[in-house]
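ok trying again, last paste got cut off:
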Amino acid sequence: WAVVFMLSLGGITVVAVLRYADNVLKGMSMVLALLLSGVLSVIMFGTKVGPVFCFAAIIICGSVFVYQNAPAGPDPKKAPPPAKKTKDQATDMERAN
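nice, full thing came through this time. structure:
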């Protein structure tokens, strides 16, 4: 029953994350959880860490850093209103038609 409870709790956590965050953040949190479980496995059970794990840990930390420090894009809700046509522009368009 403990396994069923833990998997259920994991599913509820995923739903909560997706409700307040986007899918990219969910993916990053899953990868960080795998990294944390690997580190805890070394501490608790004395497992050996291979070069692939170390390389993946560096890539993960770098990607999280870049994602957190990337500048935000323009907000489409705060776009400037379209410019009004001047009298000269309006007459030029009428001449073209």
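cool. The radius of gyration is 26 Å. The mean pLDDT is 76.
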